[in-house]
Design brief:
Helix content: 40-55%
Structural class: mainly alpha
Order of helices and strands: EEHHHHHHHHHHHHH
CATH architecture of one domain: Orthogonal Bundle
Shape: elongated
Strand content: under 5%
Bound molecules: iron/sulfur cluster
Distance between the termini: 52 Å
Length: about 280
């Protein structure tokens, strides 16, 4: 049908629910099927729509290890890559003895290492020994460590730890996991940091937020509880790498394998990684 210029479309020509009229070439009115409206929720990303895997993910999935031997080779390759990427990884918390490291680790809960390193020089100048910390009131110490957050609880833990170290361990931070776990404010992660970094004793693997996230991305564990994650890591990582593994993973978590939008295009582990949230 040809439309006459100036003539209005009649009512019956209006689009029906599913059909829509359009002017085609030469003014010819054509009826076309109206595009099906998708409900708003299905237009949003991640609302049940299946995510398409990236090319890199598909390739990596293809190489996913199937046997225990293949898994072992993959872990070894990843450890090797981490060693190349972060050859000089060390603990980022500044300290000059085990006691200072214990205090810095307690302060680092829910706080950046950078902030802790800003606070500790003044703190250790004011209270040079565990005896000095044991003698201070928690309310007073809380003001000295205020900028690290959760300062009241941290002050109580540090004063409690100082009292325990002075009264039961002769002013020396103990060297065993069992003894360290009796110290206020020292859970397994803190104990592993002190044993590994201050005493070079590999009793376990430090599991902080970076180790937790990246171990899952690398398929080293399916657990979410730090203690169970540590048990999984202990099984697949050689004991002589337990300490440095955590240092390297923590650096990796800060540099590339960040929580949101990891920088996978720059990551050497990319061909071996099949994390669901890979970005390249
Ligand atoms: S940065 Fe990307 S490729 Fe590298 S380990 Fe993390 S998720 Fe995997």
């Amino acid at each position: 049908m040809v439309i006459q210029p100036g003539k209005k479309l009649r009512q019956r020509m209006r689009p029906t629910e599913r059909m829509r009229t359009r002017f085609g070439e030469n003014g010819i009115i054509v009826k076309v099927k109206a595009p099906k409206k998708r409900p708003a929720e299905s237009r949003q990303r991640g609302s049940g729509q299946k995510k398409t895997r990236t090319h890199a993910q598909v390739q990596a999935y293809g190489k996913r290890p199937k046997t225990a031997a293949e898994r072992k080779v993959r872990v070894a390759e990843i450890l090797g890559l981490l060693a190349k990427m972060y050859p000089d990884a060390v603990c980022a918390l500044h300290h000059s003895n085990p006691w200072e490291l214990l205090v810095a680790t307690i302060l680092s809960a829910q706080c950046t290492d950078k902030r802790v390193n800003e606070v500790t020089p003044g703190l250790f100048a004011k209270y040079p020994t565990p005896q000095d910390f044991a003698a201070v009131a928690p309310e007073v110490l809380a003001q000295d460590i205020r900028s690290t957050g959760f300062f009241n609880n941290k002050a109580k833990s540090i004063v409690g730890a100082a009292k325990k170290v002075v009264s039961e361990f002769g002013g020396q931070v103990p060297r065993t996991m069992e003894e360290l776990l009796t110290i206020p404010g020292a859970a397994r992660k803190t104990a592993n940091v002190v044993l590994g970094t201050a005493y070079n004793i590999a009793t376990g693997v430090v599991v902080d937020t970076h180790v937790q996230r990246i171990s899952a991305r690398l398929d080293f564990t399916k657990e979410t509880d730090p203690v169970k994650i540590e048990q999984d890591l202990i099984k697949i990582i050689p004991q002589d790498r337990w300490i440095v593994f955590a240092h390297r993973i923590i650096l990796h978590g800060r540099a590339l394998c960040v929580a949101r939008n990891p920088k996978c295009a720059e990551c050497a582990i990319n061909p071996l990684c099949y994390a669901k949230d890979k970005t390249a």
